[in-house]
Write a structure and sequence with these properties.
By secondary structure, the chain is mainly α. The chain has two domains: 48 residues, no CATH class; 218 residues, MetI-like fold (Orthogonal Bundle).
Length: 281
């Protein structure tokens, strides 16, 4: 009888969570729907299907959005910044976490708590200082923005990596040292492959944040030379509050497709990595 009740409760929960998930997916579906409508019908009939020659425009919004925003250049800039930023964050913060965990002294403890403190400080407190410092140090390029993202992404990444490194038996590293491995060789040959679940989780979380981020590139980059996709989409706004809604909907669809595909491919590693980084040790 209890198994029947459990099965019944399981079905009820499945239905409830399916409905909740549909509520989250619906706004994305609405954007996709309106990307095929004429501009006037997006405002007048946002919830209707794009049927009929008057309402349906095919790929016209997509072509217009790509041309008006110089989407391909913005896509290349976003891709360059996201890929290299994630790579730098994963490598640097995992090495930092390994050093912090294995070397116990006042300095490493201070570094660890500074990383945790960076997760608490509101971004609004450092906006002006960041913008001024980025201009002074000539960090207003995609290469400079990668360094900025490393600083802002280090807190969460170090915290997750430290939790996982504590679960790695020290004897494995000692055996590698006895065999003649240097610390760098030990890290890349032994430790880094073991960190794979957490590396993938950190990469997914950081990639979604960096790809969709608007504020940091806007404050840091030289916008006359470099624009990421969120900034390019914002330039579809014209004077007196006019917005090309058709082109905006189309470019938003193009912007979210890569990150959705990336997430779907790597989603199976998220829970494994989060649990390993936050619970173990």
């Amino acid at each position: 009888m209890s198994s029947v009740r459990k099965a019944k409760h399981g079905w009820i929960l499945s239905i409830i969570f399916t409905l909740i998930s549909l509520l989250y997916v619906y706004p994305v579906f609405l954007v996709l729907l309106n990307s095929f409508k004429k501009k006037v019908y997006i405002s007048k009939r946002p919830f209707e299907l794009p049927v009929g020659e008057k309402m349906f425009v095919g790929l016209e919004n997509y072509i217009g959005g790509i041309e008006k925003t110089n989407f391909l250049a913005a896509f290349a800039t976003s891709l360059f910044i996201t890929v290299l930023s994630v790579l730098v964050i994963v490598v640097c913060t995992s090495m930092t976490a390994w050093y912090i965990t294995r070397v116990k002294n006042v300095m490493t403890s201070g570094i660890y708590y500074l990383c945790l403190f960076s997760m608490i400080v509101p971004f609004q407190m450092v906006m002006f200082t960041l913008s001024k410092l980025a201009d002074m140090l000539r960090l207003n390029t995609p290469w400079g923005l990668i360094i900025v993202y490393l600083g802002f992404g280090a807190g969460l990444a170090v915290f997750m990596f430290c939790g996982f490194v504590k679960s790695i038996p020290l004897e494995i590293e000692e055996a590698a040292m006895i065999d003649g491995c240097t610390p760098i060789q030990t890290y890349f040959s032994i430790v880094f492959p073991i960190l794979k679940p957490t590396c993938i989780t950190v990469a997914i979380l950081q990639a979604m944040w960096i790809w969709n981020d608007y504020l940091l590139p806007y404050l840091t980059l030289d916008l006359k030379r470099f624009r990421t996709i969120p900034i390019a989409v914002q330039y579809l706004k014209g004077g007196f509050g006019s917005i090309d809604m058709g082109a905006m909907m189309a470019t938003l669809v193009l912007a979210i497709i890569p990150i959705i595909v990336f997430y779907l491919v790597c989603q199976k590693y998220i829970i494994e990595g989060v649990v390993s980084g936050a619970v173990k040790g």
